[in-house]
Fold U3 small nucleolar ribonucleoprotein protein IMP3.
Amino acid sequence: MVRKFKFHEQKLLKKVDFISWEVDNNLHEVKILKRYRIQKREDYTKYNKLSRDIREAARRIKELDPKDPFRTESSANLLEKLHSMGLIPTKWSLELAERVTASCFCRRRLPVVMVRSKMADSIKLATQFVEQGHVRVGPEVVKDPAFLITRNMEDFVTWVDSSAIKKHIMEYSEMRDDFLSA
């Protein structure tokens, strides 16, 4: 049984709102966590920190003298890296690097890439497939849904050879050879 609050305790509790904190961006964070099926909040905070660091680096590069050869070299390196990771669509402007958010990292997670390539109907289902070990990237089986896929790796996301899902797909498209699977 919980005791009843005293008068001064009730008065203090009226001043504090436990639901929405001004410092916390909780509602937006929960919305992103649900949309991309992120199980660990630490992953999202890492993505936020990385995106903040990228924006800071882009801002600092932009502050340099436009004729400085270091500026052109470092901006080219940053844009090339962000483009190869799939965080920005083109590598032409530093404006794109200033718009990198945590959602950009979330869109490069393995389950989201699987949904985009029509390997699964929903992110929830794709996350289950990854956790159960049905998906491989190149030769390695990946069981972590937080695995980030670069542009080069997108083509190598496939089903594991012994996966029951792959067998169902092969049977459906009438490509399965009964002789080899016996």
